[in-house]
From TrEMBL:
Native source organism of the sequence: Flavobacterium procerum
PANTHER family documented for this protein: CARBOXY-TERMINAL PROCESSING PROTEASE CTPA, TAIL-SPECIFIC PROTEASE
Top-level division of the source organism's lineage: Bacteria
Protein name: S41 family peptidase
Signal peptide: 1-21
SUPFAM superfamilies for the chain: ClpP/crotonase (SSF52096), PDZ domain-like (SSF50156)
Keywords noted in UniProt: Signal
Length: 450
């Protein structure tokens, strides 16, 4: 059997579905009592044998009486950290992260023999933002416990598992040192759509556009049009795109951004190559086809009309940069110079769509999110499951004082500005020791600092 059409593909945010055809020769599945583990797991096995990118390496059916989430995990190949299964009525099966629960990202470091968490990113209109948390705040206590060398890993895990979080935070600047001690209590809640932040930085007689994108949402093309029309009107000649906290999303929206950025492209130029199993086969999509897979209101030509006068793009990246963000880095390379600055990206080079068990009328059952396609650019370059190395390595935590994103003194942006201006001088900072946190998350919502 072959999947007959790619429509509205999202990279592991699974915001849409593929249309596929089934063979009349498919063997009928055994019949089990509805609602039992056997009923669910038999269905899971059949779906994975049909769609899973690595279906030929799947084990035998095994014990169908296992809890479905455990059973699903046993079907995956060893290094598949992307595929997962959730049940809408079982919150404990959902993936857990600080970003999803509270709307912020954190890392840890040692400075002058003491240990701190540092808030790296706060989503707009999130529980964290609404309770006053912002980038650069240092965390000294988590749930009343002082951070130290032996407990920060355990405390991080605790942060991702609770529904209410209490932190003791403090500010730091090189001029005044530590100040403004404050306790912050945050309830788990919703975070809503994020703005696209952009500005123009005038540096050494150059106009440099800066754009920060937190996620690729469905229908984001209109926002890109507005932002880049303004940047074009201001005559930028260089561009920095900040994707260091962008974990992916809708491919059509990522394609829209790519259409704006790449110079001298045509609508029919090949943009993405999808490679599935023997059932799914291989599918190639041009810029226009990838855009129209999930964008009907904004045309290729409209996006091209706001292309600024640039021939290269600087992309700020890191361990949170995943999926559609990595796709942009990899798939723009055949068409323009892409200069990446920061840390190695997460390494999610697969795509898929949700498979919902809706066999019981009026009730949604388990939803599978398997890896279905590997992604490649027009030159068949890809296979970055271990992450994409930046051209310029730079850890964004160089000192306890962390500048706001978009500020020209912020470490990664300053590195980009220096590179644009041909300045390679190094800046010396106080001694900071970075701490790696061990975690078992299948998304890009975690940053390990080495």
């Amino acid at each position: 059997m072959k999947y007959s059409k790619i429509a509205a593909l999202s990279i592991f945010l699974f915001l849409s579905v593929f249309v596929f055809s089934c063979s009349d020769n498919d063997a009928p599945a055994p019949v089990y009592e509805a609602g039992t583990n056997e009923y669910v797991n038999e269905w899971m096995y059949q779906q994975m044998k049909k769609y899973y990118r690595w279906n030929t390496t799947m084990p035998q059916k095994g014990r169908l009486d296992l809890f479905p989430q455990e059973y699903f995990a046993g079907l995956l190949q060893e290094d598949d950290i992307y595929s997962y299964a959730v049940h809408p009525e079982l919150p404990e099966t959902a993936q857990q992260s600080l970003r999803r629960k509270f709307g912020f990202e954190v890392s840890f470091f040692e400075f002058e023999t003491k240990y701190y968490g540092v808030v790296l990113y706060v989503l707009e209109d999130s529980p964290a933002k609404r309770n006053g948390l912002k980038r650069g705040r240092l965390i000294t206590k988590i749930e009343g416990t002082v951070l130290n060398q032996n407990n920060y890993n355990e405390l991080y895990s605790k942060m991702t598992s609770v529904s209410q979080l209490t932190l003791e935070t403090v500010s730091y600047s090189q001029q005044t040192g530590f100040s403004n001690l404050k306790e912050v209590s945050i309830l788990q809640g919703y975070t809503f759509s994020q703005p696209i932040n952009y500005s123009v930085i005038e540096d050494k007689n150059k106009k440099i556009g800066y754009v920060e994108i937190s996620h690729f949402d469905v229908g984001q093309s209109q926002s890109f049009l507005k932002a880049f029309q303004e940047l074009k009107n201001k005559s930028i000649t260089e561009l920095v795109v900040d994707l260091r906290y962008n974990g992916g999303g809708d491919i059509a929206s990522a394609t829209a951004l790519s259409i704006i950025l790449a110079p001298n492209i045509q609508s029919g130029n090949l943009f993405i190559k999808f490679e599935g199993n023997a059932n799914g086969g291989k599918v190639d999509q041009s810029f226009k086809e990838a855009l129209e897979s999930n964008e009907s209101k904004i045309s290729f030509d409209a996006l091209r009309n706001v292309h600024p006068s640039i021939n290269r793009v600087y992309i700020l990246c890191g361990k949170h940069t995943a999926s559609a963000s990595e796709l942009i880095i990899n798939n723009l390379k055949p068409y323009m110079e892409v200069i990446t600055i920061g840390d190695k990206t997460f390494g999610k080079d697969v795509a898929g769509f949700p498979i919902v068990d809706d066999r019981i009328s009026g009730k949604k059952g388990w939803t599978l999110y398997p890896a279905i396609y590997k992604l490649f650019n027009s030159r068949h370059e890809g296979d970055y499951s271990k992450g994409i190395d930046p051209l310029i390595f730079q850890n964004e935590i160089q000192q306890p004082e962390i500048s706001p994103l978009g500020n020209s003194s912020e470490v990664l942006l300053a590195k980009a500005l220096n590179s644009i201006n041909g300045n390679t001088a190094k800046i010396l900072y106080p001694s900071v020791k970075y701490l790696a946190v061990s975690a078992n998350e299948s998304d890009a919502d975690f940053l390990k600092i080495h």
